[in-house]
Amino acid sequence: MHKILFFSLSLMGLAACSKQPHLQPVTLSEQQQILFEQSCKTCHANAANPAPQIGDKAAWEKRLEKGLPTLVQHAIQGFNAMPAGGLCATCTPPDFEAMITYMATAQTAK
């Protein structure tokens, strides 16, 4: 009995330590939707662009393993081919967090 309990607790502990990203879908505010349309969508809804596309779960999962705060920082500072600010001069860190979450959790590519 103790071995089963120990095994179960060990599995739960490993699952808790897992870096599997899990974000809940969000709805962008009206202002965030405008910002998204004017900035993020330019690259993230263009299959010819190497940016992770809206709703591409596999592409976003790899990035989310770094943590959402890191992705927000990348959006603010720029990262690889992404320009600083992600083409959005007025986006705040909460805006970036919402838009990244929106793109990563979209049900279908848009």
Provide a descriptive summary of the structure in words:
- Helix 5 packs across helix 6.
- The protein has 110 residues and is mostly helical.
- It has six helices and no strands.
- The protein is globular and about 30 Å long.
- The relative contact order is 0.20.
- The chain is 55% helix and 0% strand.
- The longest helix has 16 residues, at 2-17.
- It comes from Agitococcus lubricus.
- GO terms for molecular function: electron transfer activity; heme binding; iron ion binding.
- InterPro entries: Cyt_c-like_dom, Cyt_c-like_dom_sf, Cyt_CIE.
- Residues 27-107 form the Cytochrome c domain.
Shape: globular
The largest pleated sheet is described as:
none
Rg computed from alpha carbons, rounded to a whole number of angstroms? 17 Å
| CATH architecture annotation | Orthogonal Bundle
Output the CATH topology.
Answer: Cytochrome Bc1 Complex, Chain D, domain 2
What is the structural class? mainly alpha
CATH class: Mainly Alpha
Please report which band the strand proportion falls in: under 5%, 5-15%, 15-25%, 25-35%, 35-45% or over 45%: under 5%
**Overall mean pLDDT:** 84
**Residue windows where pLDDT falls under 50 for at least 5 positions:** 2-20
Corresponding CATH superfamily: Cytochrome c-like domain
| Residue share in helix | 55-70%
Q: Helix and strand succession?
A: HHHHHH
Write down how many β-strands occur, each being a DSSP E stretch of 2 or more residues: 0
Number of domains: 1
Euclidean distance between termini CA atoms: 51 Å
Query: What is the count of DSSP helices, taking H or I runs of 4+ residues?
Result: 6
Q: Give the oligomer, counting copies of the same chain as homo and different chains as hetero.
A: single chain
Pfam families: Cytochrome_CBB3 (PF13442)
Protein name: Cbb3-type cytochrome c oxidase subunit III
GO molecular function: electron transfer activity; heme binding; iron ion binding
Keywords: Electron transport, Heme, Iron, Metal-binding, Transport
